[in-house]
Amino acid sequence: MLSQLSAPALETKYTTLGTEIALKEGVIEGYASLFGATDQGGDTVMPGAYKASLAATTRPRGAVKMLWQHDPLKPIGVWDDIHEDGRGLYVKGRILKDVQAGREALSLLEAGAIDGLSIGYRTRRADKSETGGRRLLEVDLWEVSVVTFPMLPEARVQATADAEALDLAGELAEVFAEARALMA
């Protein structure tokens, strides 16, 4: 009898507190992850967690994909720069207007209808935090997605909305967060 080995499931993590994402002429940039901030799932990404993944020589250029809503069938652009700095995981890339999902994402971003980033990864090394969550020490980064609902209200694209719209978006995000908590 043959046994099948399967790879661990791809995990997703939404942008954390204090993130600012800029969008200008199809170029999107900002932080897809911030170090030291605990998310609603109790996980904290630690400095250096992405280093090995980003330095891997076995992965071709462009190996970290830009996806729409974590859908592997909907790449919407390319990440031209992904690196760790003292704050977190910085990303800069181009949303492709020649791709239907890219046009849709760009239009929705520009209108302020969507404004979140989320990472798709596999955990390589983690330990338990004092609060019972995980401290992610090493992750294998697969993709960074543009998403509708980031996990935290502060994980928003700042360059496309005025202050009043941001307040409303924050209130709406809180309502959705409460609804998700009730459904869990």
For the largest beta-sheet, the strand count, sense and barrel status come to: 10 strands, mixed
CATH architectural type: Alpha-Beta Barrel
Question: What is the CA-based Rg, rounded?
Answer: 17 Å
- Structural class, judged by helices and strands? alpha/beta
Domain Prohead serine protease: 25-161
GO molecular function, one term: peptidase activity
Protein name: HK97 family phage prohead protease
Keywords: Hydrolase, Protease, Viral release from host cell
Provide a descriptive summary of the structure in words.
It is a single chain. This protein has helices at 51-55, 100-111, 163-183, and strands at residues 11-14, 20-24, 27-34, 44-45, 65-68, 71-84, 88-95, 116-128, 134-147, 156-157. It is of the alpha/beta class and 184 residues long. It has one domain (11-183): Serine Protease, Human Cytomegalovirus Protease, Chain A. Strands 1, 2, 3, 4, 5, 6, 7, 8, 9 and 10 form a ten-stranded mixed beta sheet that branches. β8 and β9 form a beta hairpin. The longest helix has 21 residues, at 163-183.
Concise description?
The protein is α/β, with parallel strands linked by helices. The protein is built from 3 helices and 10 strands.
Keyword list:
single chain, 184 residues, alpha/beta, Serine Protease, Human Cytomegalovirus Protease, Chain A, ten-stranded mixed sheet, 3 helices, 21% helix, disordered N terminus
What's the layout of helices and strands?
Elements lengths: L10 E4 L5 E5 L2 E8 L9 E2 L5 H5 L9 E4 L2 E14 L3 E8 L4 H12 L4 E13 L5 E14 L8 E2 L5 H21 L1
Parallel strand pairs: 2-10, 4-9, 5-9
Antiparallel strand pairs: 1-8, 2-3, 3-7, 5-6, 6-7, 8-9
Pfam families: Peptidase_S78
GO molecular function: peptidase activity
InterPro entries: Peptidase_S78_dom (IPR054613), Prohead_protease (IPR006433)
